UniProtKB/TrEMBL annotation:
GO molecular function: oxidoreductase activity, acting on CH-OH group of donors
Protein name listed in UniProt: SDR family oxidoreductase
Record family assignment: Belongs to the short-chain dehydrogenases/reductases (SDR) family.
Sorted UniProt keywords: Oxidoreductase
Keyword Zinc: no
Organism per entry: Georhizobium profundi
Database matches in PROSITE patterns: ADH_SHORT (PS00061)
SUPFAM superfamilies: NAD(P)-binding Rossmann-fold domains (SSF51735)
InterPro entries: NAD(P)-bd_dom_sf, Sc_DH/Rdtase_CS, SDR_fam
């Protein structure tokens, strides 16, 4: 990618996640990588799940950067759309870390299609399996290990609020995640487990050049009030805030690092 995304934290850590363990899906690149490094800088042990062999080099680089922050880390490859993969990932995190305190449902895929009639049933199902079923599987398998004070965070999107005419299935999945956040937060409130989300606007990640035509990539993010796309390290602090005790009275909410676009 040119330029390379900015994913390194901007400030020294202050121990806000000291002693905590976090699992992050889609943690090999983009927002997931920035979040993994930031969580590590703040004292967390970090496990990342990534999809396939093509992403192994990215995952290894993320692990290197996390370990440079002094954190314990491991990465596992697998399709988050499969319940067994999620279950094995959670089990390994518990075995290696002894506990899980933070769940970040970040894995996602998107496919540019200008017409609804061009979206195949297979594509629609694939997008939902990764973006929605994956969050369900991870959360379901992690839940028995979570306790009062634990945090679940889902990466939804501005498209859940405003739609995106060339990302019809992706926008639909992000709307489903928004409803999941709101419903699950109410379901788990009595247990003291918080559930929140982050809805980024246009963020410069590898997903963008991989899924948009070149002319669209050239203009990506320029329609925001800030006239540019955001960087992964401009989103990760929102996840940190929701993960740590600073957000102890916040659940069922969504933060909007989107370059200034009003949403409701």
């Amino acid at each position: 990618m040119h330029p390379e995304p900015d994913f390194m934290p901007r400030y020294p850590g202050s121990g806000r996640l000291s002693g905590k363990s976090a699992i992050i899906t889609g943690g090999d690149s983009g927002i997931g990588r920035a979040t993994a490094i930031l969580f590590a800088r703040e004292g967390a042990k970090v496990a990342i799940l990534y999809k396939d062999e093509e992403e192994t080099a990215d995952a290894e680089e993320t692990m290197r950067l996390v370990r440079e922050e002094g954190a314990q880390c491991f990465a596992k490859m697998g399709d988050i759309g499969l319940s067994g993969v999620a279950e094995a990932f959670v089990a390994q995190a518990v075995e290696e870390f002894g506990s899980i305190d933070i769940v970040v449902n970040n894995a996602a895929e998107q496919h540019y299609q200008e017409e609804l009639t061009d979206i195949s049933e297979e594509q629609m199902e694939r997008t939902f399996r990764t973006n929605v079923f994956g969050a369900f599987h991870i959360t379901k398998h992690a839940l028995p290990y979570l306790k009062e004070g634990s945090s679940i965070i889902c990466t939804t999107s501005i498209t859940a609020y405003r739609g995106q005419p060339v990302l019809l299935d992706y926008s639909s999945t992000k709307g489903a995640l928004l409803a999941f956040i709101r419903a699950l937060s109410a379901n788990l409130a009595e247990k003291g487990i918080r559930v929140n989300g982050v809805a980024p606007g246009p963020i410069w990640t590898p997903l963008i050049p991989a899924s948009f035509p070149a002319d669209k990539v050239e203009e990506f993010g320029k329609s925001t009030p800030l006239k540019r796309p955001g960087q992964p390290n401009e989103v990760a602090p929102s996840l940190l805030f929701l993960a740590c005790e600073d957000a102890s009275y916040i659940t069922g909410q969504v933060l909007h690092p989107n370059g200034g676009t009003p949403v409701s």
